Amino acid sequence: MIEAACHCGAARLAVARAPRRLTDCNCSICRRYGALWAYYKASEVRLRYRRRDVETYAWGDRMLRFVRCRSCGSVLHWEAAKDPRADRIGVNARNFGPAVIAKVRVRRLDGAKSWKFLD
Ligand SMILES: [Zn+2]
Fold first, then answer.
1. Which of 10, 35, 42, 81 is the most buried (most CB within 10 A)?
2. What is the pTM of this model?
3. What distance in Å separates the CA atoms of residue 79 and residue 51, rounded to the nearest whole number?
4. Is 51 helix (H, G, I), strand (E, B) or coil?
5. 8 vs 69: CA distance, rounded Å
6. Which residues have CB atoms below 5 A from the ion given as ligand 1?
């Protein structure tokens, strides 16, 4: 398993494999978080934190909920907030060890406008 941990270590998650692609999105929330997203099925991600150790943020249509550590503020992942069948989690790959993502291709997504990749 490969673990992602927030800065203080209170919020962690684990996945079975390193990401093959990362997404750098320029939408209003992602550009502020500076996150690099790795997408997994919900069943592939083991969340290793207590709910009381995290805070969540949802905006707009509130389809997604961003989960961050209550103590250090690191954004750990997003998850579906409304649709229980939505089987996708976006893991912020910035919380993996740097070596895990050092050679993974980063694609720039125009989430602000066209929803197309810019590269
Ligand atoms: Zn933390």
1. 35
2. 0.94
3. 14
4. helix
5. 8
6. 6, 8, 10, 69, 71-72
Q: Are 42 and 83 in contact (CB under 8 A)?
A: no
| pLDDT for 24 beyond 90 | yes
Six token digits for residue 11: 């919020």
CB 90 within 8 A of CB 18: no
Would the pLDDT of 81 be above 90? no
Containing H/E element for 30? helix 30-33
Q: How confident is the model at residue 82 (pLDDT cuts 50, 70, 90)?
A: confident
Read off the tokens for 37: 């997203």
How remote is the CA of residue 92 from the centroid of ligand 1, in Å? 13
How far is Cα 67 from Cα 95, in angstroms, rounded to an integer?
13
Give the Cβ contact number of residue 13 at 10 Å.
Answer: 24
